[in-house]
Amino acid sequence: xxxxxxxxxxxxxxxxxxxxxxxxxxxxxxxxxxxxxxxxxxxxxxxxxxxxxxxxxxxxxxxxxxxxxxxxxxxxxxxxxxxxxxxxxxxxxxxxxxxxxxxxxxxxxxxxxxxxxxxxxxxxxxxxxxxxxxxxxxxxxxxxxxxxxxxxxxxxxxxxxxxxxxxxxxxxxxxxxxxxxxxxxxxxxxxxxxxxxxxxxxxxxxxxxxxxxxxxxxxxxxxxxxxxxxxxxxxxxxxxxxxxxxxxxxxxxxxxxxxxxxxxxxxxx
Length: 269
Known about the structure:
Blueprint: E1 3-4, E2 7-16, E3 31-36, E4 45-51, E5 58-60, H1 64-69, E6 79-86, E7 91-96, H2 102-111, H3 114-117, E8 118-122, E9 127-131, E10 137-139, E11 143-150, E12 156-159, H4 169-175, E13 187-188, E14 195-199, E15 203-209, H5 214-220, E16 225-229, E17 234-236, E18 239-240, E19 247-249, E20 255-257, E21 262-268
Helix pairs in contact: 2-4
């Protein structure tokens, strides 16, 4: 039986009071994230939609090795973003324009200049970024994106625009890389076509256009995966999966994609 993952709407001060269909916002709230609860058979990954009306905090995540060294288990976080809509002038802040020492990074976080030191990338629908652990980053206002990440809730906020939320300067500075962002997986996707977006070390992510190729079927064979429709025409185990949903497939053989339909597939490695 197909498992459509339960969703969790998360209110955020930087969220939106109106979301695109099929999502809805309760009266008086601002929803910033729609989470798909990780299933028991694939607990390693978390998929979410993020919708911003204001900038998120400047933050950083540790690696698995760093959390294990602190006795926290394998709780590192690497993540990636696929922009699905962006207001004019919307940006993502990733890495720094020049190298910073730990002392300079801490001072910039304390006086707020860290926001200006980030490199802010103008974005539009189709832009893709992979965010390795230890990369200082922030999502700007007016962005809607799909995030695929290691299933960890460890986030170290370095700067939060004066919002009354806890900061984590000691932990964040200890793991942050004060350096420019140079991940080669950054790209702008064409409107059509199959693309492998991430192939390790922690997970794989593909966009497929129509039925999966033999190479993609081979890469996903024999293991559960998550299916995230981007258009109509996606089914798992014979059950339709709509845009705005995420489904667990026991194997790639359960996934049916009609000609011309788009979907994201992901699995841990």
